[in-house]
Amino acid sequence: MRRMGPLALAVFLALAPCQALSAPTGAVISSVSRLDLSSGRISGQRALYHLELPNTWVGYMIADREKIANGEEPLDKLIFYYKPTSKTDKPAPVLELNVHSKFGFEMEEGHRLLLESSRYYFTVWTPASETLPTKTDQAVYNELLKNAKDDQYMIALLRLAPGDSKVYRNTIWVNGKMLKIKSITQGNVTYLPIRETCELLGYEIGWDGQKRAVSISRGDYSQTLMVEGSPAKGGFNILIHNDRSFISSLYFIYYLSLNVEIDEVANVMVNEF
Fold first, then answer.
1. What is the pLDDT of residue 230?
2. Do residues 228 and 266 both lie within one domain?
C-alpha cells in the first residue's frame, strides 16, 4: 500500500478512522482506534509506559492509536490532532509519538529521537506548521505545536514503568537544570554552547556580528572571544554549529572557575563551587 504523508493521514483518519493504513516503516496497520482522553492519561499497550495529558490536550485534541499487525515495530503509535471549533473543519495534525523496542530500532523518516530509556526508544514527528480557519484556532494550535516541539516538555509527560529508567546522552546540566542544547564532541574535546550555559550562570552574553566576537560579562568579569582570527583566551577556539557559538568545556573550568564533569556518554554537569 502506498505510504501517506502526515497531512493526508490526518484527513484520511478523520473520514475513516478504523481502516488499515501503511506505517512509515513499511509495517501494516491492522486497525486505528480513537482514544478517550478524558482520564488525562494514555497507557501503552505493547510497551510499559504512560503519557500524562495536560488539560489543554484533553480539551483541544483528539488522538488515535494505530495497531501494527504481526507484532512489528513500533510497539505503540499515537497520533494527536487539534480539533477546530467548527465541526466541519478537519482536524490538524500536531504530534506523532512512536515507541520502539531496543532491538532492530530504525529511526523513521522525519522523526526525531525524543527519549531513550533502558527498555525503549521514544520518537516523535511534528509538522512544520498548519493554517487554521480562525485566529482563535490558530493561536491554540500554535501553542499545542510549540509544546509538542519542546523535547523537555514532552519528556516531562512520559512516565516509565518500575525498572525502566531514562538514558541521557550528550546532555548539558547547569546547576541541576538541563539545557535544550546538546553538547558536541570532536576528537577528545567536548564543546558547550556559550550563551545558553553562561546565561544560566548569570552572565550577560553579547554578539558583535561585524567583528564576529562573543562577549561575556558578570560583575567585574568581562571578556571578548573572537570566532575568527585569534583564538579565545587560553587558546580555546570557538566552534560555530547551527548558528550557535560553542567553546571547550575546559574554558569554563580554567576561566570561569566552574566544576565540570563529563561522563562516558558525553553528559556534562556544570556547577558553581
1. 62
2. yes
Residues 133 and 166: their CA atoms lie apart, in Å, by 39
Query: pLDDT class for 229, splitting at 50, 70, 90?
Result: low
Res 238: pLDDT: 84
Given a contact cutoff of 8 angstroms between Cβ atoms, the answer to whether 22 and 29 are in contact is yes
Q: At residue 166, what is the residue type?
A: K
Q: Is 184 inside any structural domain?
A: yes
The model's pLDDT over 37-68, given as tens digits with 9 standing for 90+, comes to 999 999 999 999 999 999 999 999 999 999 87
pLDDT at 106: 87
**Structural domain includes residue 1:** no
Average pLDDT over the chain, rounded to whole? 86
The domain tally of the chain equals 2
Q: Are 68 and 149 in the same domain?
A: yes
Task: Specify whether 103 is located in the same domain as 149.
Answer: yes
Does any domain span residue 180? Answer: yes
> Which grid cell sits at 176?
541541576
Q: Are the beta carbons of 192 and 183 closer than 8 angstroms?
A: yes
Cα distances (angstroms) measured from residue 201 to each of 94, 107, 172, 197, 268: 34, 35, 13, 7, 15
| Same domain for 163 and 178 | no
Residue 4's Cβ-side half-sphere holds a number of Cα atoms within 13 Å equal to 14
Q: Does residue 74 have a cis bond before it (omega within 30 degrees)?
A: yes
Degrees to nearest 5, angle at CA 31 with 128 and 47: 75
Q: Which residue range forms the structural domain that includes residue 198? A: 172-272
Q: Is residue 228 part of a domain?
A: yes
